[in-house]
Write a structure and sequence with these properties.
It is a single chain. The protein is built from 14 helices and 4 strands. It is mainly alpha-helical and 395 residues long. The two termini are 34 Å apart. A two-stranded antiparallel sheet has the order 1-2. It has a two-stranded antiparallel ribbon with strand order 3-4. It is globular, with a radius of gyration of 20 Å. Helix 13 (319-341) packs across helix 14. Bound molecules: flavin-adenine dinucleotide (FAD). The site of flavin-adenine dinucleotide has 23 residues, from helix 5, helix 6 and helix 13.
C-alpha cells in the first residue's frame, strides 16, 4: 500500500488520483470558486459563541467573562449588532486577541430571507435556535493562518482523534470506524493546507503568502494524510452528487433573481457535468458499509462520536478557526447523513480500476483539492437545511 503512494485508486474509493486531479482542475475547482462568490453560498449561519462542554479552563471561555475585554460599546459598528440584536454586547466584546483570528461580521442583510430551520442530528448544535445563531460572510473570512496553535489547539485535535477510535486496536478497527477517522484526518489535512497556502510570513510588514515548509511538514511528508485528504474529497463529492436532485430543487432565494439563477446554473453545471459523470460516476461506494449485523448499533455509535466531535468545535479558542471548523464538520455530518441514511437506489457500478498512472502530489494540486473539499463541505453545510428534513430517512 505504501509503495503505490498516489498512483491508482484512492483508498476505499472508486476513482483514481489522476482522475480526481484532472476533474478537479478542469471542472470542479473553477466552478466551485465561482459558486462561493454567489450570495447564497457567501453567507453561513452559525453559532459562534463559546459553550465548551469539556474544559472550563479553556482560554477562550475565560475571555468570555470579559475580564480582559476593554472595548467600549460605541466602538462596535452598527452592522455587528444585526440581525435583530441577536448578538449580546458582552459576546461582541469577547473576541480573541489576534486580529487575524477574529471573524469579520459585516453583513449584507438582503440575504437573510428564506432560510428553513431544520436540525442536523449529526451535529451538536441546535441549528433551529435562531437566538444563538449569527450570519457570517465567508468571503470576508478566508480559511487561512490565524495564529491559533500550541497546547489548546493540540488538545482539541487529540480529543477529536481519541473520540474516534479509542477501543479498537489498529488491526481490528472496523471499516466504518476507519471512515470516520479518515474523514477527520482528511479535514485536518485540508485545514493544514489552507494554513500553509495563506500564511502570515511577516507580522511586522503584514506579508502573507505560501509557506512550503508547513505544507511539507504537516501534510506532504505523510502519505496517509494525503490519501485521507483525497478520500474525504471523494466522500463529500459522492454525497453532493447523490443529493443532486435535492440540490437542484432547493431554493436559492437571496432577493436578487439574477444572482439566484446564476447560482442554480453553476450548481447544475457541476452536478450534471458529463466529464464528472463519465470519469468518476461513483466517487465513493457507501453501499459497501453498514452491512454487518451490528450495522444499526454502529451507526448510532458513530453518530454519537461525530456529535462529540461537533461539540468539540465549541472549544476551539480562535473564532475564525471555530467558524471553519463548524462549517466543515456540519458539511461532513450532512455527507454522513446523506450517504448513510438513504437506501441506495441509485447505486452505480464502480469505474474500472485504472492503475498505473504515475502521480506525484504537488503543492498546487494539494491546494486545489483542499480548496474544493472546503467548498464542497460548504455546499453541504448550507444545504443541510434544505435537504435534511425532507425525504431523507432519519437515523
Ligand atoms: P496540529 O495540526 O495541531 O496536529 C496535532 C497532531 O495531530 C499532530 O502532531 C499529528 O500527530 C496529528 N495530525 C496532524 N495532521 C493530521 C492529519 N491530517 N491526520 C491525522 N493526524 C494528524 N489554525 C489556523 O491557523 N487557521 C485555521 O483556520 C485553523 N482552524 C482550525 C480548526 C480546528 C477545528 C482546530 C482544532 C484547529 C485549527 N487551527 C487553525 C489550528 C491548526 O489546526 C493547528 O492545530 C496549529 O496550526 C498547530 O499545528 P501543529 O503543527 O502543532 O499540529
Amino acid at each position: 500500500d505504501e509503495s503505490c503512494k498516489y498512483t491508482g485508486m484512492v483508498q476505499d474509493c472508486c476513482c483514481d488520483y489522476k482522475t480526481v486531479n484532472v476533474l478537479n482542475e478542469e471542472v470542479l475547482h473553477p466552478l466551485l470558486q465561482e459558486l462561493v462568490t454567489a450570495p447564497f453560498f457567501r453567507y453561513f449561519k452559525v453559532k459562534l459563541w463559546c459553550d465548551c462542554p469539556f474544559w472550563p479552563d479553556d482560554g477562550m471561555c475565560r475571555l468570555r467573562d470579559c475580564s480582559v475585554c476593554e472595548c467600549q460599546e460605541n466602538e462596535f459598528p452598527e452592522t455587528l449588532r444585526k440581525p435583530s440584536d441577536v448578538l449580546r454586547k458582552e459576546d461582541l466584546m469577547c473576541q480573541e486577541g489576534k486580529p487575524q483570528a477574529a471573524v469579520d461580521r459585516t453583513l449584507d442583510e438582503k440575504v437573510f430571507t428564506g432560510w428553513a430551520e431544520v436540525d442536523n442530528p449529526w451535529t451538536n448544535d441546535d441549528e433551529t435556535d435562531n437566538s444563538e445563531m449569527t450570519y457570517v460572510n465567508l468571503q470576508l473570512n478566508p480559511e487561512r493562518y490565524t495564529g491559533y496553535t500550541g497546547p489548546l489547539a493540540r488538545r482539541i485535535w487529540d480529543a477529536i482523534y481519541s473520540e474516534n477510535c479509542p477501543k479498537y486496536p489498529s488491526g481490528e478497527m472496523c471499516q466504518e470506524k476507519k471512515v470516520l477517522y479518515k474523514l477527520i484526518s482528511g479535514l485536518h489535512a485540508s485545514i493544514s493546507v489552507h494554513i500553509a497556502a495563506d500564511y502570515l510570513l511577516d507580522e511586522a510588514t503584514n506579508k502573507w503568502g505560501q509557506n512550503f515548509d508547513i505544507m511539507h511538514d504537516r501534510v506532504l511528508r505523510y502519505p496517509e494524510r494525503v490519501r485521507n485528504l483525497y478520500f474525504t474529497f471523494l466522500f463529500v463529492l459522492r454525497a453532493v452528487t447523490k443529493a443532486s436532485d435535492y440540490l437542484e430543487q432547493a431554493e436559492y432565494d437571496t432577493g436578487n433573481s439574477e444572482d439566484d439563477l446564476k447560482t442554480q446554473s453553476l450548481l447544475k453545471q457541476m452536478l450534471y457535468n458529463p466529464k464528472l459523470r463519465a470519469a468518476c460516476p461513483l466517487p465513493f461506494d457507501e453501499a459497501k458499509l453498514w452491512q454487518g449485523q451490528s450495522g444499526p448499533e454502529l451507526k448510532q455509535q458513530i453518530q454519537k462520536q461525530f456529535r462529540n466531535i461537533s461539540s468539540l468545535m465549541d472549544c476551539v479558542g480562535c473564532e475564525k478557526c471555530r467558524l471553519w471548523g463548524k462549517l466543515q464538520v456540519l458539511g461532513l455530518g450532512t455527507a454522513l447523513k446523506i450517504l448513510f441514511s438513504v437506501e441506495g437506489d441509485n447505486h452505480l457500478q464502480p469505474v474500472s480500476n485504472i492503475i498505473g498512472f504515475f502521480f506525484v502530489l504537488n503543492v498546487r494540486r494539494g491546494l486545489q483539492v483542499s480548496n474544493s473539499l472546503s467548498v464542497l463541505t460548504r455546499i453541504l453545510g448550507h444545504l443541510w437545511e434544505k435537504i435534511g428534513g425532507t425525504n431523507l430517512v432519519c437515523l
